Amino acid sequence: MPRSWSPNLTLKLTLATHLAAVFSLFALPAGWPWAVAALIVNHAIITLAGLLPRCNWLGPTLTRLPESACRRGEIALTIDDGPDPEVTPQVLDMLDGAGVKASFFCIGRHARQYPALCREIVARGHSIENHGEAHAWHFSLFGYRRMKADISSAQAILGELAGQPPRFFRPTAGLRNPFLDPVLTHLGLQLAAWTRRGYDTCEADPAIVLGRLCQNLAAGDILLIHDGNSARNSAGQPVILSVLPKLLHEIRAAGLTPVTLPAALT
What is the DSSP annotation of 76-101? Predict the structure, then answer.
């Protein structure tokens, strides 16, 4: 459900900086270099926060599961950029074979192309979450209205196919700007980042991807891999298909239980 949005400390300080800069230009014209410097520093901070997917300066960001999930020994396996007609069915079979549930962050336009595949994800007990309509590389440069339209469009089709609206949103590459938090608040969505990722869209070596995902593996982790846009290993196979069985083995060996994000936050 939509929530009431209010700016966080970072945005309040940004507003105060801009107001102070405007005031100084009129009250203390000679101090304009300091006003400009303050604005540059402020915008650098905002830009940096948007480039760091796990940073919460622009709004609350889920990077680990809550303490209750940690006590239950749970982790969340999140799978982005699908559904993919070649890869996603194989991923679903692997998850079924291990008795594991995951959260699929699906792209709206892909869901429109492969609606039956989205329904299959849900039928097998996984959750579908929102990864935007277009998965545009420049999503973090969108203004408020375009960002809201993109997320709302994906929310509509994914909710229709899943039978219930997604609860979580993840932007392209995790990059964002100050408009995202009010948009998500209005749409009743929660921003979900990750604890660690394998960079499997650009790393073709399954061993390196697996090592990144399993480093300091612990309860409460949110892991990120990709069924869409996956890099290919030396045999031409999507990296996730090489990594996932070994990753599930490591998770099981550590005594951990993969669950969907909604289940972990129940």
Answer: EEEEEEE--TTTHHHHHHHHHHHT--
What are the pLDDT digits (tens) for 91-143? 999 999 999 999 999 999 999 999 999 999 999 999 999 999 999 999 999 99
Mapping DSSP to helix (H, G, I), strand (E, B) and coil, where does residue 250 land? helix
Q: E strands, 4-85, where?
A: 74-82
Integer Cα distance of 107 and 255 in angstroms? 32
Task: Please give the torsion angle defined by the CA atoms of residues 99, 74, 228 and 56, in that order, rounded to the nearest 10 degrees.
Answer: 170
Q: Which of 40-49, 127-136, 186-195 has the lowest mean pLDDT?
A: 40-49
Residue 22: other Cβ atoms inside 10 A:
12
Report the C-alpha gap between 198 and 5 in whole angstroms.
33
Write out the H or E segment, with its range, that includes residue 11. helix 9-27
Q: Which residues on adjacent β-strands are paired with residue 104?
A: 79, 128
Residue in the structure block whose two tokens are 């995790």? 174
How many of the other CB atoms lie within 10 Å of CB of 93?
A: 11
pLDDT in tens, 198-243: 999 999 999 999 999 999 999 999 999 999 999 999 999 999 999 9
Exposure class string for 220-243: b at 16+ Cβ within 10 A, else e = bbbbbbbbbbbbebeeebbbbbbb
Please give the backbone phi and psi of residue 223, each rounded to the nearest 5 degrees, phi first. -100, 145
- Cβ neighbours for 69, distance < 8 A, ≥ 6 positions apart: 219, 220, 259, 264, 265
What is the rounded distance in angstroms from the CA atom of residue 96 to the CA atom of residue 73? 20
CA angle 56–60–62, rounded 5-degree value: 90
How far apart (Å, rounded) are the C-alpha atoms in residues 111 and 122?
A: 13
